[in-house]
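Handout, section 3.2

Students often ask what a structure token actually looks like in practice. Rather than define it abstractly, here is a full record for Glutathione peroxidase. The first block is the sequence as you would receive it.
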Amino acid sequence: KKKKKNSEREVERPTTLQMADESPKSIYDFTVKDIGGNDVSLSQFKGKTLLIVNVASKCGLTDANYKELNALYDKYKEQGLEILAFPCNQFLGQEPGNNEEIQQTVCTRFKAEFPIFDKVDVNGKNTAPLYKYLKAEKGGLLIDAIKWNFTKFLVSPDGKVFQRYSPRTSPLQFENDIQTLLGQASS
């Protein structure tokens, strides 16, 4: 009779290759919470051009950004653009409300019709996994950290991060990039 090794007690460690296989390959590998606390698999947006934005209700950039995000959404949603807004309170506490208050503000004051998600951290030890991925795919100028509200990530229809735009880059300034990706999706 063969002697059993202590292997039953040993924890199998994944190999580097296995760990690499488990790392997200696209935006579609993530599940996030919507503003109502429900799980949303981003795979439901496969084939769409996504604009992912960390938003805040009380920022100096808020009015102009929501106005232009709404304009882009109205113009391109039928062609496959989805805007995913993630409230964040990490920049001078400019998104202080709870999810219900945020939804009320965004839908009533800013008339946003695009999806609003659960409040997230975009920097620090509690960074949402989605934002870790976005920053790893497209780092910022000098540092990868999100520098302020309304940092925007444009994601191609195959789920890859196409470009990152600074908070001061207005949404209409990269409308041509959106058109390019929408053209790829339809061809």
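Discussion prompt for tutorial groups: The first helix runs from residue 16 to 22. How would you have guessed this from the sequence alone?
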